[in-house]
Every structure is written in C-alpha cells, then in structure tokens.
C-alpha cells in the first residue's frame, strides 16, 4: 500500500510542477497547489529546484496583494504562516506579507453584514483564518462578529439558525437553512468551536454553537434509513431529503463537526449522536447511497477516506479504519486504472463529463495532501478545510 501511494504522489508532484494558474485561492488555485508541494518536498527530502520554488512563492505573494484577491487573502496569509513554520520564509518576510489583517477583518464584517457568511465564498472563510492568529488588535472584530451572527439568526424564519445565503445571486432566504459544511451552518458551528478553544468570547461562542447544533439535530430526516441530513431545511416543510457522502454536504461532514462539538464542550450526548450518524454512514458504499463520481477532497473518495481516517485516529474504532481503507482503495485504483497525466480528473455534474483539475478542493493537490497524511499522520494542513482538531 505504501509503495502505491508513493508512486501516485510522485506523479501528482510532477503534474503540479508543470501546471500554472492565475487563480490564487487555496481551494482551487496556486496556494493549494503550493501547499501540497511544500509538504511533499518535506516528505521527499526537498528535491525541487529551490530557485524555481522561490519564484512561484514570489509570484503568489505579488498576486495576493491585488484588489481582486481580498476574498482569498486570509487563506494565503495562513499559507505564508505555514511557510514560516517550515523555515521557508523569514519572520520579517512574514510580517510584510501578512500586514493586512485589519483590512481583512473589515472586509469580513462587511460581507457578514450582507448576510454572506459562506465559508468558501464569503465572510466565514476570512474569519476562520483570522481566529487562528488570535491577535489582540482584532478583539473588536471577534466581538462584532458574534453580534452580527445573532442579528442574522433573528432574521431567520426558524429563529434558531442562520438564513441561507445564495452566494451566486447574493440574496438572503430566511425560510431556508443550508446544511453543508462548505456553505452552511456546520461551518459556523466549527468557527464557534474554534473561538471557544482559543478563548475568544467563549461564552458567546458556546451559546451559538449549541443553538446551531440543536437546530441540526432537530432537523434530521423523518426517514433516516438512507441518510440523516438533507442538504437544506425549509421552514414548515417535511424533514426529508437525500444528501451525498462527502466533506461538502451530507452526514459525513456534518457529523464530523458535531463530534468535535461534543469533544470540545465535553458533551457526551452530542458526541454519541455524532458517532451514531458516522457509524451509520459507513454502510453507504454504492453510488445510489453516496452520489460519488470522482476522487476529489470535496465530494470524492479521497475526502471520504480522509474523514474516516481522522475518526479512526480519534476513536481507534475498526469500523472507521475499514471504511478509510475501502475508500482509499477506490482512490488509488482510480489513478492506477487511469495511468496517465493528469492523474485525477473531477466530474462536472452540469456537463456530465470529466475534466482535469489541479486544485486542493476538487483536484490533484487535495488528493495528494490526503495521501501524504496517510503516510505521515500529519493533519495540520486540513485547518484550511475546517477539519482540524
């Protein structure tokens, strides 16, 4: 198994080394690709031409200060922190590169006031990265964030969740609530838990985490023989809906966050309910029950394998280990049967076709990071997708 993983990692590295993109985001652009390369080179003994790598970092730094990079700058700053920890940039360089935290905080508040809390496309992605720094200069930001979250909850028809924000149409829908980790309330719960652990307005963080957690648990499908959670809850409508097995939407990502709520707040009831849902998810293994089409982190076999790997490290329960190995085998076989460059392709559900994808969320970089974690047991990189301890 190890030799198979190493072989695929080598192919992914070769593929990404020759790929360039104008996108800067960690989810789909250069930042995610470079994150894989940093960790792969560490694992592989640092064989890449250092001058070439430094040039790529320099170009990313230059792009990160462009006006249209504001939405992604916080995640890029987090990546620069990673570079500093790996002694690839100096403390002086880091101070210059990450000198815009107050501007990022202001932009995050502006988006939240519009109702755009979206993790991947809005305020929460910025706020989550800023929590990791816990700067004293940002305490007013943290305080305002919780005030505005309370205001958003009051606008919901449910009065105990945050209204759905359609980031494409830029509109609020009070009668709906999004259940996806990538775009919905599980990501807000995770933000609250992270604030609680960092002792950032812990009582407010705990209160909001419980409000949103209880809302999720009170909106489980009436018939949960297939899956517990729908993609969306609608006010005064029957609790029923199919969701995929994935990081982005569905039982796996939601229950993983609920497990962390129980673990962090020492709430055995929530922890046990999360485990019940996670154990149930291990029985979902075919397309009808998973809606699986590719290997990507977001909604593919590698992402499923990674969450089960995380849960196995938490619990040492063999059900999670077996599920990790099952979805890992699907991921490895996908690359071996393909046996060419690009190593992995992502499925486009609109065009119903497979296309090359090199990013962290849906492409080779994310799959590579997951495979590295299996060999190194280093999970520090997955803070950027809210799966961190």
Explain this structure to me?
The chain has 389 residues and is mainly alpha-helical. The protein is built from 16 helices and six strands. It has helices at residues 2-17, 30-44, 50-64, 70-85, 91-97, 101-113, 123-133, 139-155, 185-197, 202-217, 251-264, 268-281, 287-290, 301-315, 318-338, 364-376; strands spanning 164-166, 171-173, 176-178, 232-234, 345-348, 353-356. Helix 4 (70-85) runs parallel beside helix 7 (123-133) and helix 9 runs antiparallel to helix 10 (202-217). The radius of gyration is 20 Å and the shape is globular.
Strand order across the largest sheet = 1-2
Query: Which ranges are low-confidence, i.e. pLDDT below 50, for 5 or more consecutive residues?
Result: none
Number of helices: 16
Spell the H/E element sequence. Answer: HHHHHHHHEEEHHEHHHHHEEH
Largest β-sheet summary: 2 strands, antiparallel
What is the distance, rounded to the nearest whole angstrom, between the alpha carbons of the first and last residues?
Answer: 27 Å
Class based on secondary structure composition and strand pairing: mainly alpha
Portion of residues in helices?
55-70%
User: Could you say which overall geometry the principal axes of the C-alpha atoms support?
Assistant: globular
Number-wise, the strands total 6
Radius of gyration over C-alpha positions, nearest whole angstrom: 20 Å
Strand content: 5-15%
Quaternary status: single chain
């Amino acid at each position: 198994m190890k030799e198979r993983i190493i072989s695929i990692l080598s192919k992914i590295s070769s593929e990404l080394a020759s790929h360039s993109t104008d996108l800067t985001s960690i989810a789909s652009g250069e930042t995610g690709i470079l994150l894989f390369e940093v960790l792969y080179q560490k694992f592989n003994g640092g064989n890449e031409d250092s001058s070439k790598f430094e040039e790529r970092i320099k170009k990313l730094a230059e792009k990160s200060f462009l006006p249209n990079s504001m939405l992604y700058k916080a995640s890029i700053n987090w990546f620069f922190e990673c570079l500093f920890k790996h002694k690839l940039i100096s403390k002086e360089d880091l101070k210059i590169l990450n000198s815009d935290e107050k501007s990022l905080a202001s932009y995050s508040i502006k988006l939240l006031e519009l109702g755009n809390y979206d993790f991947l496309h809005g305020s929460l992605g910025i706020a989550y990265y800023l929590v990791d720094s816990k700067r004293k200069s940002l305490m007013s930001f943290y305080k305002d964030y919780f005030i505005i979250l309370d205001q958003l909850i009051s606008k919901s028809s449910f009065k105990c969740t945050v209204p759905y924000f359609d980031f494409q149409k830029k509109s609020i829908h009070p009668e709906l609530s999004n259940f996806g980790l990538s775009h919905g309330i599980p990501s807000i719960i995770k933000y609250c838990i992270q604030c609680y652990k960092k002792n950032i307005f812990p009582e407010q963080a705990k209160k909001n985490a419980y409000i949103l957690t209880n809302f999720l648990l009170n909106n489980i499908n009436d018939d949960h023989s297939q899956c517990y959670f729908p993609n969306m809850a609608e006010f005064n409508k029957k609790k029923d809906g199919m969701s995929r097995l994935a990081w982005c939407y569905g039982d796996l990502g939601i229950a993983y966050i609920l497990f962390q709520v129980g673990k962090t707040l020492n709430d055995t009831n929530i922890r046990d309910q999360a485990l019940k849902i996670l154990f149930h998810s291990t029985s979902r293994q075919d397309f009808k029950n998973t809606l699986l089409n590719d290997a990507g982190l977001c909604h593919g076999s590698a992402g499923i394998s990674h969450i089960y790997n995380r849960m196995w490290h938490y619990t040492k329960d063999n059900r999670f280990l077996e599920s990790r190995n099952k979805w890992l085998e699907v991921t490895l076989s996908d690359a071996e049967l393909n046996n060419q460059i690009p190593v992995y392709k992502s499925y486009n559900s609109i065009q119903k076709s497979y296309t090359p994808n090199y990013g962290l969320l849906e492409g080779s970089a994310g799959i590579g990071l997951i495979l590295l974690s299996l060999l190194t047991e280093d999970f520090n990189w997955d803070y950027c997708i809210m799966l961190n301890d």
